[in-house]
Design a protein that fits this description.
About 45% of the residues lie in helices and about 5% in strands. The chain has about 475 residues and is α/β, with parallel strands linked by helices. The longest helix has 27 residues.
Length: about 475
Amino acid sequence: MLLSLGEWMNYFGHFHPLFVHLPIGILILVFVLEYIQARSKQNDLRRAISISLAAGFITAVFSCLAGWLLGQDGGYAATTLQLHQWMGISLAAVTGIGWWLQKYAAPRFYRVILAVIFLLLMITGHYGGSLTHGDDYLTAGLPQPVAGWLGTGAKKDSVRPRTPVADINRAQVYADLVMPVLQEKCYSCHSAQKIKGALRLDTETQLMKGGKHGPVVKAGDADGSELIKRLLLPAEDDKRMPPKDKEQLTKEEIALLHWWVSAGLPMKQQVAEMKPDSATTQLLHTFASGATTASTPAPLSPVLATKPPAADSMAVQALIKRKVLVSPIAKEQTLLDVSCINATDFTDTDMPLLLALANNIVFLQAENTRISNAGLKEFSRFTNLVRLNLAGTGINSSGITSLLSLTHLEYINLTGTQLDDAGLMQLAGLPALKKIYAWNTRVTTAGAAAFRTKKPDIQLQLGTE
């Protein structure tokens, strides 16, 4: 399918980093040629200078156009972006004037224009560097005492030491634990200084708002939250966050964020108010003391290392027509992440559409659909299923039996269903299961306690504890 005009324009904008270096190099060449000509006091280089100025003007125009298109993607500090754009446009315009003056007008005016070109080149380059590397890129590396003389800070370490929390129970979950992690590992690309993907994480409001693709956190559903998904992707995946060339989160930091989202995104509450289980309490104590380990990838299901035959394209298109989202879990992967978030009228009669891709689906989000116990009878064919979200569906404990053959299932969300104590205890038979979300169900406190006694290694989240 041919790309639309808008998509082509967006693609052209990605050439700005290539185009932008051409006028810089060409204009520096102009200054060198002018210096040589002034020293020799001859006009032998006049034509070469004229051609260079013309080339500098043309490439500057292309650079401005590509830069403007790139800026439409968002992800940059607005004020710095506007300054960079207008300085760049001014540089292109003045370079064009300089070319005309060099060719047709008096040298005196031309020399003034050369000085202006030099100034604009420096200023435009500075703002461009600030967009890419941050506003303090030039001053951050200054050693003392020069930094002090100029009133700037000394060079910052890539990881600032986190202040240990004296009393973990009195620590505010967000301000004392979560925010420092985001500040150290995420703000460089997702704050007021730089807004990649239209996503800011530096304020509570912006964090909840999400980015250009919508919210990145879902209260009570960590494994369904884009933020957590991106943290757990393989290092070589382009969608992995932070990117592989950036400092990664430690396993404790990932676990902390996972718990925070699962607990409903508490902002003002203290840890004691959240009543974390013993395993989480131990994690928080380790994290708060600063005794975290080096970054290590979270363990992945062995299924995610497999590569079954590619999904049938007609079956994929049939689901897409049904408003079901279908996407590979990673670049060049045949395993699929399927979401019915836009197809809440999906029913048991639609199950054949999913079954056609049964071997490829590893993540299935079917929350708030009309799937019932009858539809669950077909789930034994999803042999590679790792995560399953059935929150808000009409299923009850009678349907749980149909899921017991899912030997790779690690996560299940049954929030808002008719799951009871008997159904919960059946889930103990799933060999790979690690997490269960069962908010607003018929599971009792006694039933939850019995389950935890039998399967202490499975995290059970009821949302009422």
